[in-house]
Specification:
By secondary structure, this protein is an alpha+beta fold. Helix content is 13%, strand content 30%. The chain contains six helices and eleven strands. The mean pLDDT is 94. The structure holds ligand MTE and molybdenum atom (MO). The ligand Nc1nc2c(c(=O)[nH]1)N[C@H]1C(S)=C(S)[C@@H](COP(=O)(O)O)O[C@H]1N2 binds next to loops.
């Protein structure tokens, strides 16, 4: 009886669960506000700020190399889901078509619905980051960010913007929605970068 409830976590798995996180088998939906309903026909992704302005339409994304990704997903509210299977496009593949001013060091991720989150160019331009349009073989449901979301596996999932519609390139760090509201500017789960050290906004 006790053994059933207090089983030691499989060491192989516990190695993949950052401190203070608990595994979930489902896939909770974590959204601040309403779920935007965006068709692929109207969907657009805009490059703004310190870069040559550009607009990507759905067909442009579909024309890029399509790949499958398996990634762990860690929400700062303490649930983690391992081995989420996605299909989409590498950030680095899209960025091959973007001309960024060398003065840019930060990016603001923009979304339909107004959500924002900031990320450094170093954290964004990593091999394992991708835009996803498919989740476990099915079109990405709207509540999980369809038609297209960003996935940044090495940071807490609030950096994985749903309904993403643009990158704004910046010369210095600006804070996104949760980052202005007490969350850490970077959000690295293994270092438990959950909250800002600057809780009073000073
Ligand atoms: N546009 C947008 N993206 C967002 C959010 C949001 O509220 N709006 N929530 C973030 C948070 S806190 C998490 S944990 C993940 C949750 O993704 P899911 O709802 O697919 O599980 O999306 C992130 N991306
Ligand atoms: Mo989250």
């Amino acid at each position: 009886m006790l053994g059933k409830f207090f089983k030691k976590p499989d060491p192989e798995l516990s190695d993949r669960v950052p401190p203070g996180q608990y595994l979930t088998k489902g896939f909770p939906v974590l959204t601040y506000g309403d779920t935007p309903q965006i068709s692929t026909d109207e969907w657009e992704f805009k490059i703004t700020g310190l870069a040559t302005p550009a607009t990507f339409k759905w067909a442009d994304i579909m024309a890029m190399p399509q790949q499958e990704f398996t990634a762990d997903f860690h929400c700062v509210t303490r649930w983690s889901k391992l081995d989420v299977k996605w299909t989409g496009v590498k950030v680095l593949d899209l960025m091959k078509q973007v001309e960024v001013d060398p003065k840019a060091v930060y990016v603001m991720e923009h979304c339909y619905g107004g959500y924002t989150t900031n990320i450094s160019i170093a954290d964004l331009m990593r091999e394992e980051n991708f835009f996803a349009h498919t989740l476990f073989g099915e079109p990405l449901p709207a509540e999980h960010g369809g038609p297209l979301r960003l996935v940044v596996p090495h940071l807490y999932a609030w950096k994985s913007a749903k309904w993403i519609n643009g990158f704004e390139f910046l010369s210095e760090e600006e804070l996104g929605f949760w980052e202005r509201n007490g969350y850490h500017p970077r959000g690295e789960p293994w270092a438990e970068e959950r909250y800002s050290n600057n809780l009073f906004g000073l």
